[in-house]
Fold this protein.
Amino acid sequence: MRPELTVIKIGGNVLENPQFYAEFLDGLSSISKPFIIVHGGGKIATEISQNLGIQTQMIAGRRVTSSEDLKVVIMTYAGLINKKLVADLQSKNCSAIGLSGADANLITSTIRSKTPIDFGLVGDVEKVNGEFLQLLLKNGMTPIICSLTHDGKGQLLNTNADTIASEISIEMGQFYTVNLHYCFEKNGVLKDAEIENSLISHVTSKVYHRLIEQNKIHSGMIPKLENSFHALKNGVSTITIRSYSNLNGLNKYTTISL
Amino acid sequence: MRPELTVIKIGGNVLENPQFYAEFLDGLSSISKPFIIVHGGGKIATEISQNLGIQTQMIAGRRVTSSEDLKVVIMTYAGLINKKLVADLQSKNCSAIGLSGADANLITSTIRSKTPIDFGLVGDVEKVNGEFLQLLLKNGMTPIICSLTHDGKGQLLNTNADTIASEISIEMGQFYTVNLHYCFEKNGVLKDAEIENSLISHVTSKVYHRLIEQNKIHSGMIPKLENSFHALKNGVSTITIRSYSNLNGLNKYTTISL
């Protein structure tokens, strides 16, 4: 029997809200080790870009990462957010270690094709260095991974944090029984994004396609679910979408299955 | 016989100059592994602070680290500079891993006393986690360490990079024969800072005190030399002060002894 591993993706809206952030950190004590955290932080990066006078270009609701944007993303994700999380976890006796995809060649990627839409310096995950993560986990460490990858030729690339969480979960599925939790400020997948008690407790790919047809799922939820189905097909044991304040699973949340 | 380890402190003026930086990276191929790099990046942080409209307060020529300054320092050192170095080294087949003092509890510190001068969020090194560095080195990794430490209670602290380099060298002296190189844009310790060929090839503590009396050593060189003598007294084998472009030691440089 393989040991258990929990992979937690934490949403940017939680990281930027001091109260949510404190509750999330407290909740981590209810998670049994080993675990891995994956984070982005787009909203905080956008705020810093604005303070630096950098214009953020959006196409179809998605950020285009220029070289100036990438600098801010590196500073925010790998610097500000990652090191704060690490220092805070260290204060709670959790030996956190912060990583980007370049560190120890953790995640290599290829720059996304410029057609049909040029999103700039964005990477699609190629390979995760699972042996390195295993080395850290076996030595009692908790990897805190920000959503940056590299192309192996010296270029860092902005990469979707939900995808990183699922690709890491798939890679670690070779060594562990992996439970992946997408944590954010909602209770899970909702029938109506405005009504918290419209929670759907169980989403299958059939339910997902029906929700898409009915135009009930939007923006951020689509990559979470697409990544979930991909991960389930590739050896990840369980996936949930839940509130940052519900890591112990005492309240309702959404489970995903094929 | 203990194996050899090279610790390289690289100065901020080299990191901010694209040509110097490229030459420094190329020169690293002449260093036999294992090695560790330590860096700060004060000038780049000051530039970003200015772009963000943050006023940097200086007392006696030294920066006071406010909480706003610290954010910029974290973004710049642990984010921008560290991850660029890591990605560039990865592209040269060096398995670099970027770290702050909070990661894996690498360097704990205590906040500096507010008397006689309150320098703000500045830390004095307490303990280096040498076992963790040894784990990385034994697994073929090259630690790239930025000049941030933490107090173990969730607070990151700005810390002198020269001191971090010497404290890491001292700690690693338990396991390795450590050669510490302070690398910067000058050829070494100069009799006259404006004249490159006024190099002093060998500085002892006696020579150092004479230079101080003659008012020939200033600002940045004093902590380098103080840290050097401290490191030599605590088991570090050799220390040099040299140009970033002279890692192979083909040109002249300054060696330090007690």
Observations:
- Residues 243 and 250 of chain B are 11 Å apart (CA to CA).
- Chain B touches chain A through 40 residues (CB under 8 Å).
- Helices of chain B lie at 12-15, 18-27, 42-51, 67-90, 130-138, 161-172, 205-213, 221-233.
